[in-house]
Design a protein that fits this description.
The structure is a single chain. This protein has helices spanning about 1-25, 35, 60-75, 90-100, 115-125, 140-145, 160-170, 170-175, 190-195, 210-215, 220-230, 250-265, 280-290, 315-320, 340-345, 360-370, 380-390, 395-410, 415-429; strands at about 55, 80-85, 105-110, 130, 150-155, 180-185, 205, 240-245, 270-275, 295, 310, 325-330, 350-355, 375. It is α/β, with parallel strands linked by helices and about 425 residues long. It folds into 2 domains: about 25-210 and about 410-429, 3-Layer(aba) Sandwich (Rossmann fold); about 220-410, Glycogen Phosphorylase B (Rossmann fold). Strand 8 (about 240-245), helix 12 and strand 9 (about 270-275) form a beta-alpha-beta unit. It starts with a helix and ends with a helix.
């Protein structure tokens, strides 16, 4: 399989090269990453301190955020551990550097080509390798196993897309999964799916979703008022928070806001695009709807009179949900699969989402069952339902209680994942 997989990569190499050059030179998404993705990592990584070193890979923003509670629990159990976090995307890198204070190093993950993989592993020299959620790179996993490095998957999830791909490429998946010693999955469905792709059942365990642990306790009144002040919102100001919106979702959000404002004229909107470089475009759309607009990154633009605030900085959205009355989470009105609905729920807020939530199916199922999450199909429908909820203070309070209970009863997966990592480190000594 090693020969077959690399022969396939060799045959595809002209296409891979063109695509990667386009990412570096064309759209610039890999412009700041290409050297490290080719295995040229900082020299400081080569200097081992004698402490155990764990390499945790979190591909993008969602995985980087989900890894946070695992890192914290790992540091509690093994304070002297040295943690190297890698990401694939630039946004994931920014989030990791800002949020993962427990990480000793933050680097880019190598392309899955042998020279780059070998160079990266030789630089990091991990004692244990951990992949978050669903990152399966055959060459990398094969090479860490050849070096005697235990590999684990934590907070594991298998998407519908991966299941379809796996039917055609099961021989490659099985070979790759054979190099992972422990697979800690979010749900029974994920466990069944990873086994269907070729994982050995005795290596698979269901531990729950680490994302429940990443959410902080509900903010206290003083913290909420501090955030209100930051956004120039008055005390008690009603707000609709639209988080992690993607292209194609901003217009439905603005439509919903416009409809809800007819019944609640004091309502304000904070919209946080998944891609902060779209801030100006969103502001132009808001102005086309007749709204005034400010930017979180420009304090002088936040006077308290604007209708819409564009949250165009990283790392603040989770706390901002605390000043909202209702929320929408993006990646769900388009075929993206849905982003993190737990952040507003952790602050006791009702959350709306579209029909495309296949990346968060279990969380969505739980949110619907608890009657704290609500699926909508359009901006018009969302606007009507927001108006109705804002008129029912008793129902908002009932949702708050149910939301906080949902978070509380599901915590603990991160501790179990950290314990498995510590066991792997101890066995590797």
């Amino acid at each position: 399989m090693f020969v077959l997989y690399n022969l396939l990569l060799l045959l595809l190499s002209p296409l891979i090269a063109v695509y990667y050059i386009w990412r570096v030179v064309g759209n610039g998404k890999s412009r700041g990453a290409w050297r490290q993705q080719m295995g040229c990592l900082p020299q400081s990584l080569r200097k081992r301190s004698g402490r155990p070193r764990v390499w945790i890979h979190a591909v993008s923003v969602g995985e980087a955020v989900a890894s946070g509670p695992v890192l914290r629990e790992l540091k509690k159990l093994m304070p002297d551990v040295e943690i190297v976090v890698s990401t694939t995307t630039t946004t994931g890198q920014q989030m990791a550097k800002k949020s993962l204070k427990e990480a000793d190093y933050v680097i880019y993950f190598p392309l899955d080509l042998l020279p780059f993989v070998r160079r990266s592993i030789a630089s990091v020299k991990p004692d244990v390798y951990v992949c978050m959620e669903s990152e399966i790179w055959p060459n990398f996993l094969f090479q860490v196993r050849r070096r005697g490095v235990p590999a684990l998957m934590v907070n594991g999830i298998v998407s519908d897309k991966t299941v379809k791909t796996g039917k055609r490429l099961r021989f490659i998946y099985k070979w790759a999964l054979d190099n992972i010693q422990c697979l800690l999955m979010q749900t029974k469905l994920d466990a069944d799916r990873i086994v269907s792709l070729g994982a050995s059942p005795e290596r698979v365990e269901v531990v729950g979703n680490c994302k429940f642990d990443q959410e902080s306790d509900v903010l206290n009144p003083e913290q909420v008022e501090e955030i209100r002040s930051r956004y120039s919102f008055s005390s008690g100001q009603r707000a609709f928070i639209a988080g992690s919106t993607n292209p194609g979702e901003d217009e439905p959000v603005l439509t919903a806001f416009k409809l809800a404002r007819k019944a609640h004229p004091d309502l304000k909107l904070i919209i946080a695009p998944r891609q902060i470089e779209r801030a100006e475009t969103i502001a132009e759309m808001a102005q086309a709807f007749g709204f005034t607009c400010g930017f979180r990154s420009k304090n002088e633009s936040l006077t308290g009179s604007e209708d819409v605030v564009v949250l165009d900085i990283f790392g603040e959205l989770a706390a901002v949900y605390s000043i909202g009355d209702v929320a929408f989470v993006g990646g769900s009105l388009i075929e993206k699969g849905g982003h993190n609905i737990l952040q507003p729920i952790a602050q006791g807020k009702p959350v709306f989402f579209g029909p495309y939530t296949f990346k968060a199916r279990d969380l969505v199922r739980q949110a619907k069952a608890a009657e704290v999450g609500f699926e909508i199909g359009s901006g018009e429908e969302m606007g009507e339902r927001i108006s109705s909820l804002l008129s029912d203070a008793d129902e908002l309070e009932r949702i708050r209680v149910r939301a906080l209970e949902m978070i509380s009863v599901n915590r603990g997966a991160s501790r179990r994942c950290a314990e498995a990592i510590v066991s792997a480190v101890n066995r590797a000594k």
